[in-house]
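Possible regression after last week's pipeline update?

I re-ran a chain I had predicted before the update to compare outputs. Posting the input and the new output here so someone can diff against the archived version. Not blocking, just want to make sure nothing changed silently.
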Amino acid sequence: MFITNAYAQSATDSAASAFGGSGFEMIILFVPLMVVWYFLLIRPQRAQAKKRDEILKNIRRGDQIVTSGIVGKVTKVIDDKELEVEIADGVRIRVVRSAISEVRVKGEPVKADAA
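New output (post-update):
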């Protein structure tokens, strides 16, 4: 036999240590990576989504909005999910809030009816 048992064991030990050795060493490497991933990617995306939801929730009559290239003025808030938007004189369409990409100009607050 050309290869001894001691030499064969030494080769497997060096291969195991080259790939991280134990599971504890892998955890020590991946935990800081996950923390950095959270603070650089996940947390800012959540903050941006929260800000967008707040902007969409606060749309009111008179706001100018952009949706898939169409610019219009909100004429009526139908419910929590839909708006009526005037895109030209006398041309009104219904738009789902989630389709709105930008709110350009904030309108005046809705006046309370004296009735």
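Follow-up from reviewer: compared with the archived run. The chain is about 45% helix and 25% strand. Marking as no regression found.
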